[in-house]
Amino acid sequence: MRIKVITFTISMLAISVSIFGQSQNQQPTSTKTTTQPKEPMEKMDNFVVDLGYEMLMFENKPNGLDFKPWNNGMSFYLLYDRPIMTSNFAIAIGGGISSQSYYSNSQIRRVGNDEKEDYSTFQKLPDSVDYRNNKVALTYLDIPLELRYRSNEDNRGHRWKLTLGFKAGWQFDVHDKLVIDNNRKDKYKTYIFPDLHEFRYGAYFRAGYGKVGLNAYYGLSPLFNEGHGPEATQLSIGVTITPF
């Protein structure tokens, strides 16, 4: 599955660069010649906001686990953009915060037995529990590294943009929240999840025009520590906003 996703991403990048390159070649050229050297492209997209629809992919999905359709995520990144000489490419590195919320009918709990005392999985809430919302939220401090391509400005002053990125992050907060459906709307939170993987890393892709675009992230690290939970990886798709 991972090989297919990576192959698909590389193929999409190659096709997109080819299309953009053709569009640049088709632009009318002036008959006048100039001896002025080409200037490096301006720095841009120093602040990036990613809004995503979040998913977890399992090798073997826990019994009874059912995710709601409104899983969501949000990321904020400050990046230093460095154009590569006078080309249409740039590299960027920075830092930021990302958070993912997964809504379901289950909670992450330890289910230790004689063979595995430190094993966690998603356990379905009892039918007797009448709840309004139930989620687990994960928050990371991320360090992203990006290779960026952007076309020349068109007659509207906008550019087509492509980004291939890799980010690594440390999980500094995780908790779940159960909201009981009663008159008081009682809330119960848990903060101890010893079997979740504290560090994550993965690849992402962005494609956009002007200040908006689309993004996709594929986790290459497990959600749980190896052997201490079901095999699951993070996947998200969404919208990117680059205000400046």
TrEMBL record:
Signal peptide: 1-23
Presence of the UniProt keyword Signal in the record: yes
Domain Outer membrane protein beta-barrel: 37-225
Keywords annotated in UniProt: Signal
InterPro entries (alphabetical): Beta-barrel_OMP_2
Protein name: PorT family protein
Highest taxon of the lineage: Bacteria
One Pfam family recorded for the sequence: OMP_b-brl_2
Taxonomic placement: Bacteria, Pseudomonadati, Bacteroidota, Flavobacteriia, Flavobacteriales
